[in-house]
Amino acid sequence: MKKWLAEMVAVLLVLSTAPGAAAASINEQKVRLGIEVLLEDQINLINGKRVGLITNPTGVNQQLTSIVDILYHHPAVKLTALFGPEHGVRGSAPAGSVVESYLDEKTRIPVYSLYGKTKKPTPEMLANVDVLVFDIQDAGARFYTYIYTLALAMEAAKENHIPLIVLDRPNPIDGIKVEGPILEKKYSSFIGKYPIPVRHGMTVGELAQLFNKEFNIGADLTVVKMEGWKRRMYYDEISLPFVMLSPNIPTLDTAMVYSGSALLEGTNISEGRGTAKPFELLGAPFINGEDLAGKLNSYHLPGVVFRAASFIPTASKHGNKLCQGIQIHVTNHNSYRPFETGLYIVKTIHDMYPDQFRFLTPNSAGISFFDTLVGNGSIRTAIEIGKSIEHMKQEWQPALDEFLKIRKQYLLYK
């Protein structure tokens, strides 16, 4: 064999055996984000206008450049105000902490807090703004606060006669599957403002259109659609780097389990905050991990297995205490049902450890944080009196079916 041919064969062998090298390039789908479509095809929407931008660290292009810096340096745009949701524009604030208004270090543009005393832009914040732009990656769960930052911004835009543009991004856990009960009005909060299910199966642009019409916001709304995204796609099937959605949703694995395992936040069980695997590691000092994993695996829930695990959270519940419990391992994301799985976990721990397990104490209105997460009080009651998960699903299915009919009107992608 000639030398040049031997060298070529060697190179091809290396490429073919590199883990995932060929598969990634062949299988990943090229997607153009809303920010890219805006800048390349629809710059007229913001050309020459004073732009107020609502974003966070997920607001990046394919090259991972922040939209803050892109718009700040764009010759056709005048970026005049930034609006920081939970965790802030650059992502420096811990979960739940109040974000104060300040000047952005890189651009010296004022950043107005939308997480704290003021969650809705005020007329004073919008005084130097001609158009509001929203660019944040959603997690696909009803209790993810950024979609309500969007809803309140739409209200402010309507009240102050300012158009609002949503730059669309993928639903990271696909845009097909929908799960869970519809939120009841009594349980409305900043982690669940409108009657939608826990796993809504929509993009943030689709949600904006639904909010705008179904809940009578009436903003001058434009959604800049993506190109190349299909509803069946999970984030690992597209050609985009995954940027951590928040400090406690660092990976796609976390995002896949979040809409179910976050239910543990309404209990005295650690949801894994303060560990390297938040929402994947779940447990408490009083749990036997082998017993819990064995019981959960006996249900043969689709697309998931449970491994006994021990961990010591550095913060949050049971901080610096040895916890035993489980790690969730998703084996097939197409069949995995995170919300239903989360309910099985809560109910199983409740039933196995009735003397130690607790739902968080209800407030003066009788609403537990668990109720706020699931969107009603009936599921907590059903768990406490021993009803099955199948019974709970039958109870919420009629309202979910009605939502699915409404949802169809606002879907933008095939």
Outline the structure in words.
The chain is α/β, with parallel strands linked by helices and 414 residues long. It has two domains: 34-237, Uncharacterised protein PF07075, DUF1343 (Rossmann fold, 3-Layer(aba) Sandwich), CATH 3.40.50; 252-376, Aspartate Aminotransferase, domain 1 (Alpha-Beta Complex). The chain is 31% helix and 13% strand. The protein contains twelve helices and ten strands. The chain has helices at residues 3-17, 21-27, 34-41, 67-73, 146-159, 204-214, 252-261, 289-297, 338-352, 369-374, 378-384, 389-407; strands spanning 50-55, 78-84, 102-103, 110-113, 131-135, 164-167, 221-224, 281-284, 304-311, 323-330. The strands form two sheets. It has a seven-stranded mixed β-sheet, with helices on both faces. The protein has a three-stranded antiparallel β-sheet with strand order 8-10-9. Strand 3 (102-103) and strand 4 form a beta hairpin. It is globular, with a radius of gyration of 23 Å. The chain starts with a helix and ends in a 7-residue tail after the last helix. The model is unreliable at 1-26 (pLDDT under 50).
